[in-house]
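Usage

Read records sequentially. Each one opens with the input sequence:
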Amino acid sequence: MKKLLTVAAAMLVTMGAHAAQDPEAVYARSCGVCHNGQIPTSPKRGDKAAWEPRLAKGTDALVQSVTNGLGAMPPRGLCMDCTAEDYKAVIKLMTE
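and closes with the structure output:
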C-alpha cells in the first residue's frame, strides 16, 4: 500500500508540473497587446535599441519586473500561468 501511495504521489507531482509554454503563443495572448506599439513606454518586439538598457540589468531582473509588474505593465504581464522559464523565453523572443 505504501508503494502505491508513493507512486500515486509521484504521478500527481509530475502531472502538476508545467512544461514550458510556446513563447510565440504566450506573446500573442499576453504580451503583444502592449509590446506591438500600443503602449509607447513598452519596448517593441525586435527593437534592439529599446531593449538594450533593459537587458543590461540581466534576465533575472527582467523576470522580476514582469512578475511584480512595472510601470503600466500589470503583475505577471497578464500571463497568470507563466513560469519564470516561460518569461525568459518570451523575453528572448521579444529582444531578438
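Summary fields computed downstream for this record:
- The CA atoms of residues 18 and 82 lie 9 Å apart.
- The longest helix spans residues 2-16.
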